[in-house]
Amino acid sequence: MDYEKQASLGKPKRKNGSIHENRKTSKIPTGKRLKNSRYIGGFDGLRTLALLGVILYHLLPYDLQGGYLGVPIFFAISGYLITDLFVQEWDQNGSIKVLYFYGRRIKRLYPTLLIVLITSTAYMTLFARNLLENIRSIVWTNLLFVYNWWQIGHGQSYFDRYNGESPFTHLWYLSVIGQYYFIWPIVLIGLLIAFKNRGHILGILNGLAIVSAILIFILYDPSNTNRVYYGSDTRMTPFLLGAALAFFWPSTHLNPKLNKNGRWFLNIIGLGSLGMIIWMAFSLSGTSSFTYHGGMLLFSIFSVILIAVIAHPGTKFGNWFSNPLFAWIGKRSYGIYLYQFPVMIFYEKAVVNIANHPILNPLIEIAIIVAISDLSYRFIEKPLIHFNYAYSFKFLRDLVKRDSKIGNKRYIAIPVILILFIAGVGVVSGSGNSNHHSSALQVNILKNKKKSTAQNNKALKAQKEARLKRKQRAAELARIKKEKAIKLTDAETKIKTKYRLEPSEVKLAQKMTVTGVGDSIMADTSDDLQEVFPNAYISAKVGRQVWQAATLLKQLAAQGNLSSNVLINLGTNGPFTTQQLKTIVSIVGTKRQIFWVNVHVPTQNWESKVNKTITDAGKKYKNIHVVNWYGASLNQTNWFYGDHVHPNIEGSKQYTTLITKAIVKYGSEN
What we know:
Layout: H1 42-59, H2 70-93, H3 98-127, H4 135-143, H5 147-154, H6 172-194, H7 198-219, H8 226-230, H9 237-248, H10 260-283, H11 289-311, H12 317-320, H13 324-350, H14 360-386, H15 392-400, H16 413-429, H17 440-468, H18 470-482, H19 490-499, H20 503-511, E1 514-518, H21 520-532, E2 536-540, H22 546-558, E3 565-569, H23 578-588, E4 593-597, H24 607-620, E5 624-627, H25 629-633, H26 649-666
Parallel strand pairs: 1-2, 1-3, 3-4, 4-5
Helix pairs in contact: 1-2, 1-13, 2-6, 2-9, 2-11, 3-4, 3-6, 3-13, 3-14, 3-16, 5-6, 7-9, 7-11, 9-11, 10-11, 13-14, 17-21, 18-20, 19-20, 21-26, 22-23
């Protein structure tokens, strides 16, 4: 997806296939139109495949774990097209009409962005108020195209696929490309003035692309990828490589009459690049360190090579990537990208049994996205791109006139005003920090966090003492297992009754040491867990994913604070790879026992695949014991809060009982 008119300054050779049709709505105020601009229809196909990858990643992150890499393709196409047109304009007219370019960009980007912000906020105000968190900041940063920088400090990870996911997370890209649009013309003019030798500009752009890739390498933090993923400076590589390509491979200077060897060479490297792009889309996880240590750079290089091959009129790629379907999607791709996330988030919030129909639900979501985008294109984007905003006040006056030339169409303003009003209420009443802390779940998590901090200090002290008396402790646990008549204290008797445990299970749990690492599920249940296991150290964080746990486990192991029994509850917030699981196992080691709780997340389609990964790990590694929370909680709707994922008071007790029985039975006594 990009936002450039490929032939906005010249007549295209065909009518269909551009994300923006050529229109006679405006003229360049001065200077001549570009005489030799080419329309490159093949970019519609590449853009469509990239957009499809992004959407499928959002819908099926387990199946297409590198689908997010469609975004570098968008950047590369944008860098090539606008630079190619600017250089043509500079060569023909001796100048670049920057203000005219800005006007076109704003006129193209703003209307649909406003529609998405307004309608989504109105919907959240009525049906999903918990998603109004930070709505004021989200709105104004998007309007100023700085949302990506706000996301770095305040937003959630792009790879956090649960935990109250914002319907606006994907708009970071629009802010980045908006910044490039406003900065790049000035930079390019400076380069064209300073360097008469275009080869020097080519070298500078490639050098800057490498610098951006190095920045990703340096700034990458495995526990938080927001800085490198959202940063405008760290995402410049594909855009700059695309811009450099415009100097090395200008679209109007490419000879359509290639000899056989040249045609074969380009087709082969094009197929090779396409193959690598597809392979990386299926294999390069956004949470893998390789992604930020060269992976994105390699992907950007392959993308630019493919762009070069498609742009050349002497290859078959332009034809292969051009067809009426791609042309139709290309025209609507901007809307499809913008509407996708709100539709997904609202649909998945309304439909509980997403996991029961992992194919049907994504198909329905895609159909809704395409339908809304088509309506938006027909009735919003096309009319507004023709609209002369100089007559805005006149248009508003006509809306309230009885004898208005607009006729009955003016009554459409009534629902529009109503939606604006509802959205305004949401923006005014929306929380600046967290709008859902008053819910029973959030209150419970906050309460547990305070109690767990104090209990953790006691647990670490107890674990240290237990390690010093390892033999005595092991003998004591062995004795408890053999005893037939076990006497319980009053406090232990209450625990036995509350959690429906055997006396020996209570006694053993009170003595055993445990290290728990989890997400909001464990944060929700930590109080019960530490009541049964007073020597348990619990580290639970809302939104935590498997790839983020590795750093924590390394720290605990290095400090000597990793118990012989490790409880893990991760996978609720998104899928993970077998390699990431293997990393966890290697850190914990084979001498410790791992108790991995599988997930109950019916609102997400990755539930079954996460659970299969955990089950397979239990079969592969002797020290992994799968705690089947999914099986125990199936159809137990009264065990959960309204989100159908987090255990309520009763569910937390059942969750704790299940874990206790597993650890007591299979746990290490050392």
